[in-house]
Amino acid sequence: MKKAVIILVGIAAAVAFYCAPSAPKGSRKAPTGASDLAVAAQKTYVAPGDLDEVYLFSSGGHSGQIYVYGVPSMRHLSTIPVYTPYPATGYGFDDETRAMLGGLTWGDVHHPALSETNGEYDGRWLFVNEMNGRVARVDLKDFKTRQIFGPMPNISGNHGSAFVTPNTEYSMLATRFSIPIPKGKYAAIDKYASDYKGIIAAVKIDPKTGTMSQGFEIMTPPFDWDLGDAGKKVSDGWMFWTCYNSERATGKLEVTASQRDRDYIAAVDWRAAEKAIAEGKGDVIGGVKVIDPKKVPGIVYLLPCGKSPHGVDVSPDGKYIVGSGKLQGVTTVFNFEKVQTAIRNKDFTGDEDGIPVLKYENIKDAEVPVGLGPLHTQFGPDGYAYTSLFVDSAIAKWKLGTWEVVDKIPMSYSIGHLCAAEGDTVSPKGKYLIGLNKLSHGRHLSVGPSQPESSQLVDISEEKMKLLYDAFTEPEPHNAQMIEAKKLHPIEVYPKEENKNPLAIWDVKDAGVTRNGPNVTVKVVLVRSTITPTAIEVNQGDTVKIAMTNIEQTTDELHGFGLLDYNINIVVDPGETKVVTFKADKPGVFPYYCTNFCSALHQEMQGYLIVKGKG
Ligand code: K7E
Ligand code: CUA
Q1: I want to staple 381 with a disulfide (CB 3.0 to 4.6 A). Which of 34, 271, 329, 430 is the partner?
Q2: CATH number corresponding to 40-487
Q3: Per-residue H/E/C for 327-367
Q4: Looking at 169-173, 438-442, 541-545, which range is the least confident one?
Q5: Is 310 in the pocket of ligand 1 (CB under 6 A)?
Q6: Range 527-552 average pLDDT
Q7: Contact 365, 323 (CB under 8 A)
């Protein structure tokens, strides 16, 4: 206990020290750790007309969005709205995306997960979690959010997500906040240790379409699950999650959840869980099949780990599981084979609600002295691992197998996640590593109390890591993933023949209003430089459905439909049809106009909605 307090005080002091603004203001000197400036500039400069080599998909935290950057330029290329309406693309305004958002207007996005085939990014989809128990799928053909699944029942605080398995069989979820289940059930807070439950959940993914559906859940003690990673190659079929608060404490967790020396990493045999569910072993709770490990043994095991661990990361060959107490100076490398042997030999020290606990000494291969505050680990193509150190505000480079720390580079400041190119797959690509820093004092021009977020691009192609570039990244960066640009082939227009919307029309002759009692359907054609029809007349109280088709088949010829006074803002890509339904409850004459600059006569692209009053 006393030791923990001393460590906490030490960390507070270290954080205060590192957070102090120390970067030169207004001077253009090389930052510490930068390579020769000219070399760094050359390595990050993408000349006009040239393209970046790598895509970076970065979490937008509670902005509810995903941000796309090009690497090495670190240029912000695109914003993909996921859990939050985004007027720039009309997301959350048309019927389909509004229904997808389900009445919620934000989500706290943490971990993007690119789809995988045989443990490699396959460039098909991007999954991403948010805290409210949901997972979304972005199609990388058009960089659009196509499905928001959930909230998954019984899940409260879906932080340990949306990690995919090596063949994208599942997206995995875990609760940060335990509650009595099913949702809605009451239990007093002093019954926390016994009546509150943690949940590990698997969302099934259709291998052809990417469509998500309900999988299964596993009930756990009320630990706070934090982060996960799927096993791969030799450890394929297993999933690993860290937890804090194995004390099952409530109240001031910084004190109450710091009493034990160790917390856990859960090792979950998800194929065994899948099989148990198929054999009918789950109980239905809150509408989903839930496995209780007390009744169905052989699925979950607990690996003791340094206390309050954050990340857990599996090496490219699947042999090692790296996890650290975030108050420690070392990161532990667990050996998957030793874990399997211990399970076979039933070498347990006890259990937690029926879940066997393994012996730390028997399953670890090494404690690597990376430095203070290890959070996350990524991998290079050459057997090196890179661990982010929050307290030391640095990245440590170390060798798998020899466990030798070979290099360290300071980060400005207090790095959280880090992202190497395809650095969590079976074949990391190397070259680029990005530190996603939590604090950035003085790294950019000041814009007031909320300092611009800073991510730092590091060259890992040589023995010594070299700082190349300080980039602004949209808040709130948690995890990010980088994929080689050549793996993605986004479309440029929606081909006309693939548009299956029953309200789509392709000729201005077909545009116009049809009435069925108080229900009015308006078919609209958008093409340079007219919105047809140019006037729409309805009666007050009508339910109006406007279906607009952008009949262009030319790259980047977008049109918009802004209907003032009715809060309608639709953007339609070439070949796409979008539908918006609203009640015409305000009488009067309301202009609509194209919002995307589309031609020399863009300004002329306008019309009137005329709502005839009842009186
Ligand atoms: Cu910011 Cu992965 Cu939510 Cu670590 S998490 S730092
Ligand atoms: Cu269409 Cu501007």
Answers
A1: 430
A2: 2.130.10.10
A3: CCCCEEEEEHHHHHHHHHCCCEEEEECCEEEECHHHHEEEE
A4: 438-442
A5: yes
A6: 98
A7: no
- 177 token code pair: 């906040």
Tell me, what's the pLDDT at 259?
85
Q: Where are the domains of the chain?
A: 40-487, 496-612
Q: How far apart are CA 85 and CA 568, in angstroms?
A: 12
Q: Say if residue 489 is exposed, middle or buried (CB neighbours under 10 Å; 0-12, 13-18, 19+).
A: exposed
pLDDT band at 392 (very low <50, low <70, confident <90, very high): very high
Atom of ligand 1 nearest to the CA of 438: 6
Distance 416 CA to ligand 1 centre (A): 6
Characterize 94-117 residue by residue with b for buried, 16 or more Cβ atoms within 10 angstroms of its Cβ, and e for exposed. Answer: bbebeebbeeeebbbbbbbbbbbe
Which tens digits make up the pLDDT trace of 126-164? 999 999 999 999 999 999 999 999 999 999 999 999 999
Pocket test for ligand 1, best of 131, 229, 310 (most atoms within 8 A of CB): 310
pLDDT at 29: 54
Work out the burial of residue 186: count CB atoms within 10 Å of its CB; fewer than 13 is exposed, 13-18 middle, 19 or more buried: exposed
The verdict on pTM exceeding 0.90 is: yes
In this prediction, residues 303-328 reach a mean pLDDT of: 96
**pLDDT above 60: residue 28:** no
**Nearest of 557, 553, 580, 556 to residue 498 by alpha carbon:** 553
pLDDT at residue 416, rounded to an integer: 97
Q: Which atom of ligand 2 is nearest to the CA of 557?
A: 1
| Contact 419 CB / ligand 1 (< 6 Å) | no
In one-letter notation, the amino acid at residue 609 is L
Phi/psi of residue 204, nearest 5 degrees? -80, 140
Evaluate: CB of 228 within 6 angstroms of ligand 1: no
**pLDDT at res. 31:** 52
Query: 40-487 with 496-612: one CATH topology?
Result: no
Candidates 3.90.190.20, 1.20.1260.10, 2.60.40.420, 3.30.200.20; CATH matching 496-612: 2.60.40.420
